[in-house]
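Encode chain A's predicted structure.
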Amino acid sequence: MKNVGIISLGCPKNTIDSEKMLAILKEKGYNIVNDENKADILIINTCGFIEDAKRESIECIIEMGKLKKHRLKYLIATGCLSERYNKELLKELPELDAVIGTGDFHKIAEVIEKIEKGKTVLEYGHANLLNDEGIQRILTTPNYYAYLKIAEGCSNACSFCIIPKIRGRYRSRKMEDILREAEELVKKGAKELILIAQDTTKYGVDVYKKFMLPQLLKEISKIDGLKWIRLLYAYPDSVTEELVEEIKNNEKIVKYIDIPLQHSHDEVLKRMNRNTNRQKIEEVISRLRSIPNMVIRTTFMVGFPGETEEEFEDLKQFIKEKRFERVGVFTYSREEGTKSYYMKPQIKKSVKIKRQQELMEIQKEISYQHNLSKVGKQLEVLIEGFEDGIYYGRSYMDAPEIDGVVYVKSNKKLKAGDFVVATITDAYEYDLVGEY
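Encoded structure for chain A:
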C-alpha cells in the first residue's frame, strides 16, 4: 500500500475538497498518513485568493519538493492556485508531477495512476462542471464539529475578487443532498455543523428561484443529536427578515454570524462592486442586533484603489460606532484578472499596513471591552483540548481557527467534545477564562 498525505491550505471550502480526495484514495486502497515525511505521494491543496495565500502555497510546494530527496516520489498541487496558474505552475515548479484545478479534484486517483506511468498531468478548466455529489469525506476536523458546504462558486463579481474565475458561477446544492450529508456527519459524532459557501445567504436562488437558507436551517435543526449550527460567509445584501427571524427563534442556531462588509463608505463600496451601500448595511446590522446576545463577525479591507484619508476615516468611525464583537482587517491585494487591478491610484503598501494596524488597535480595545462584559456570567463551552494544566474550548461566540478561545479551569476530567457551563472569571483581548 502506498502512503498518501495531504496538506490543505486556505479556507474550509478547501478543507472539504481535501477530505473528499482522501476518501477517494482510501477507497482505491491507498494508506492515508498525517506525516509528510512518511508519504510516498503528497498532495498540496493550494489557495490562490490573495498575494499572501499564493506565496504560502508556492513556498509549501518548494519546501515539500525537498522531500523527493528522501522517501517522497510524487508531488501534486490541487485547488485554487492550480486552477488559476495551471500551466505556469508546471513550468516554474519542476518538483510538481501534476496540477489539478478546482473542478477536477475528483480525478485524483486517475491522475496518480498516470504519473506512476511517468506522465506529467495537467487537469483544469472545469470549475463550473464540478459534480462531487455523493463523494464521501474523511474528516480532518475533530469528530465533534464539521464543515457543511451548501453551495459552490460565486456570481457576485466584486471588483477585487478572483474567486468566480477560480471556482465558477454560484451553484447551490440540492437541499435533500445537504440534509443527507448533515445527518451522516451527526451520526459520525458532529455536535456542531458550520455552514459554508462563497456566499451562504444566496443559497437556493439558482435552484429554487428564491432565498432558501432559512428553510435549510430549519430542516437541519431537526436532526437529533445536533447541538449547534453556525453560519459563515453571509453576504449583507441577502440577509433577509426571514433569515434573521430563523436565527432568532431557532435554538440550535448559535447567535453568531460571519458577514463580510469590506467597507463602510459608499464610494468605496461602489468601486468594489459590492451590491450594497451604507444605508443597507446599517439596516442589516440593526436587524441582527434585534437578536439577543448576537455576535457579529465581519471583515474589512483597507487600501482599496483610490481609498482616500476621508474614506478611511469613515471606516474607522464606523468600527468605533458599531462595536462589532469580531473583526478581521485585510490589506487590499492587487490581483491580475480582476477589475480593481487596473484602478488608479493604487495605494502604497506602507499606507495599507499602517491603516490595517490602526483599525486592529481600535478593534483590540472593543474586543477587550466585550470580553470584560462577560466576567461573572455563565457561558456554555465546547471543550476542545487540554494544555499546560488547563482545558480550552469555544463558546457560541467563537468559530474554530478564526476566533478566540475560552480557557476552563476544572477539577473534573473533561474530554474533547464535551459541553460544559463555565463561569467566566477573567478576560483578555481575544480570549476568556472560566471555571467549571
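The chain has a mean pLDDT of 96.
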